[in-house]
Amino acid sequence: MEGGLVSDSRRSRQEAMAQTRRDLVLRAVRQAVAEGGVASANVRDIAERAGYTAGALYAYFPGKQALFEAVLADSVSRAQAAAQSAKVVRGAPEGAFAARAQAWFAYFLAHPAEAHLLLHVLSSDGRGLGRMGEGLATLLLDSLAPVTQALQALGCSPVLLQRETMALLSMAVGVLLIHDPSKLSGTNALAVEALAAYIESVQLRLAAVTAQPAAAPEALAQVDLFG
Predict the structure, then answer these.
(1) Which fold would CATH assign to domain 63-215?
(2) pLDDT tens for residues 36-71?
(3) Phi/psi at 133 (5° precision)
(4) What homologous superfamily does CATH list for 1-61?
(5) How many CA atoms are closer than 13 Å to the CA of 67, on its beta-carbon side?
(6) Which of 39, 115, 172, 201 is 20 to 30 A off residue 182, Cα-Cα?
């Protein structure tokens, strides 16, 4: 029994040390990207920032892209937590949808280096979500779970729910792409307003659709953003 307790204690210490090392590495990646951008970040510099040799880092991460994706996996989990903890008024599903969507987006506005990594991983060779590993793509979509739950409360059908979730993700990424995350001091308000306007259009569209459950398919069409 005592041996089992010692073993559990040792395992807990080892896991805590491993998490500390991982946190150091992820922090180093964020710093490197924040200071020099995605293109200039390299494994040697990241390793030095974290207090390791490049060889030691390669033992855990096969390359720079793996480091980027590890940070992004952590980032989307934090964005999900921010969306889940957004203040909402009970009994007001429209407000919950807006608050949670804006909280998810606000996380990346507040962390421009991570926004750059998101854009980099999505835009590399033009394959979008297909560029990501399956696990990371799933994490990104799952990070919007608080938003999709709010959409469900608004009466979205499964098909409409999937459509609106992907449309919201596309809009959020597009706004980040247009409003350079590294220069948000001057465009932050515009970025927030752009997403808020889109969210409002979603609310109006869903209100019309859910009020007429037997509406023709064309009633589900996306609003013309450029009309």
Answers:
(1) Tetracycline Repressor; domain 2 (1.10.357)
(2) 888 889 999 999 999 999 999 988 889 898 999 899
(3) -65, 155
(4) Homeodomain-like (1.10.10.60)
(5) 27
(6) 201
